Fold this protein.
Amino acid sequence: MKLKNIIESQQFDEETIFELFKKTDELRIGVKKPLDGKILATLFYEPSTRTRLSFESAMLRMGGQVISTENAKEFSSAIKGESIEDSVRVISTYSDAIVIRHFEEGALEKAASVSPVPVINGGSGSGQHPTQTLLDIYTIWKEVGKIDGITIAMVGDLKYGRTVRSLCYLLGKFKNIKIIFIAPKALSINQDIKDYLKRKDVSFEERTELDKYLPEVDVVYMTRIQKERMSEKEYEESKGLYKITEKNLQLIKKTARLLHPLPHVEEIQLSLETENKDQRVAYFRQAENGLYVRMALLSCLLD
Amino acid sequence: MKLKNIIESQQFDEETIFELFKKTDELRIGVKKPLDGKILATLFYEPSTRTRLSFESAMLRMGGQVISTENAKEFSSAIKGESIEDSVRVISTYSDAIVIRHFEEGALEKAASVSPVPVINGGSGSGQHPTQTLLDIYTIWKEVGKIDGITIAMVGDLKYGRTVRSLCYLLGKFKNIKIIFIAPKALSINQDIKDYLKRKDVSFEERTELDKYLPEVDVVYMTRIQKERMSEKEYEESKGLYKITEKNLQLIKKTARLLHPLPHVEEIQLSLETENKDQRVAYFRQAENGLYVRMALLSCLLD
Amino acid sequence: MKLKNIIESQQFDEETIFELFKKTDELRIGVKKPLDGKILATLFYEPSTRTRLSFESAMLRMGGQVISTENAKEFSSAIKGESIEDSVRVISTYSDAIVIRHFEEGALEKAASVSPVPVINGGSGSGQHPTQTLLDIYTIWKEVGKIDGITIAMVGDLKYGRTVRSLCYLLGKFKNIKIIFIAPKALSINQDIKDYLKRKDVSFEERTELDKYLPEVDVVYMTRIQKERMSEKEYEESKGLYKITEKNLQLIKKTARLLHPLPHVEEIQLSLETENKDQRVAYFRQAENGLYVRMALLSCLLD
């Protein structure tokens, strides 16, 4: 399997996804430096230590090398008015692939339109974050044992949360999915996603209570109310509305899993012991899976 | 050929330059890790993603490794009042060569005076940027086929633009060069450069119109009006004065080349198609050449 | 010798210290990439180019690789409210060891409590900086030839200076040590350290004059008055009180050594020639030793 760019979740079909998961499982066991001599550039216009280090570690574990900027918005030529296209045309001559995280939707498409080397979306505006989505869905597959037929609750900031949006796009590729959106009215899922899900025959419902639906689902996908993406008023009205605690965690099926794209703040209130011992708490394993999925993606782009 | 430090354009003579170009041409074809086990430190007191990543990629492509700070002014001991000399004495114990970009002229000379390892100027104040100049002149040599005897227009901010200053110093080493400086009065080339060119028998003239001179030249070297280095008044009076458009590009000879140290803003107004297909537009190839020239320099400093 | 985490100076006993020094001496001669395939993460919530690059160089010289953030406080999920524990749980899945520098005392203990990989303290609050201390004491051992029985003057900011605190803890492991604390009243050494030294039978005295004690000591450990850790009033009253000059340097025994954790500002006023030629001036060799000591530590943690 050979990929060209990674821009949005929709670009993956079911067959590609499972090929990728097979590759991921191979790579998590051990690699023999297939990317020796290759260089990955990480160009982050919006800092994200987690995503950046995950990509960089994936590249290094595959035998490759990394060049990096953790704050391109302030430190690169962007501040002098250079277009993303020009920056990418130059950086692409120094590297074999580029991971870009950008504060504007559409920036990745612009980058890919001029780059001679593969471009990977590391998160763009409130739009997409496809590698996060691939690790989310890989985690569901590994932890729940299937993707077709699952019921999933998506909870919290569904309006600004790009991981939720990307995950919906990808779930649309599978069969018999049921999504329960749980959010305050002000942060409910956008119409474009609902239209997409209807076209894809994905069953969904919109709710405002959490506990009532916990017993029904195979996956609870919690998200953080993102203070930095909304007005102060929106934030004050929304924060703390939905929480997973020691108590309501018990409402979730033993075989179900609690996911979170991280970082989490007050929406997860579990003890260290529960986080370590309760198999339902899967979000740290989910983060680790990001490393292996990104290794597989880099392999498909560069090997 | 063995170099000690790279501080200013003047340090290179014609013979050294062509040896360096020969080395550059060898290295662009392929390398066998001659710098394995060597470490390059990049110490940027003034952020510049482009220059830094170019050096880092060059080092990695040669089999070396990199340690890096992209904002030494704020993140290093400089903020605690440490002198550049002391910083370099310490960093030199961790690395085999140091690239420094600094906001003050003279900082590189101070660094080189105490460093036991080679020091490379990655741009200092409004003074010099010798590796940019070497890639500029390498690009002229590759694209025009010669350096002796060329006519070159240098356009835009000739007062604050350090690439123009450095390029003049280097062109002084060659024969029968003619330079046409095109700038508003307020941003005209400094007297020290004119004195140098006279001493070196380089013919030059100072003009204020662009289009009239485009048909005469082998190279158009456009530069950006650098908002960050001048007063608001100077900027408002100068920006947009000189532009290369689809129209006046046609005034340039087919064999001539349009160079730019990048980033460019409104002074280049060409379509993507022209940028990709018109052979005269050479500035992205010029940026790529930076990688190979820096590989050659690192090789001469460290191998 | 196998270490688990490096959190505070007190954790090392005399036997471990000398084993470490033996390892350090081996590694400074040459290494054969024992850490090939291993990844070190450097997570700096408080920027420190010197400490970070020293660790990164140590890792690269041992054949390992590095992932890095130089400003985690602003660029990582910390800004979104993530706990240090969660950050470490995630980063530990991308790396084989983590160096953390943090502005809060206690952060390292929290990190180590959840990390499945070794955690190394790269400086925490005004508390500890154990790897600086190990390089300090290694330098004393190399330069003075012994640790037991030395007399050491610690000069300057003894209240906020974490290197002094850590060094006291480590000297408590040795025999017949005499410490002369020289500081203005407002910046004198804290009671907790004095209590510790009493328990350990370390002899110490508190003084306010410098020159008088210089002839007595084997080591002068100068420190900077740290503007950034105190009120403006404290700073104005303390800066410039203690200085080593060409003149009072002559009061120090020929076999004694002048150390400084660096960066130094006005408290060292020596000419370049003295710094290079007078064997008593040891602070740049001290900084270089940091590289070898950190190589030894990484080897003990990871090999």
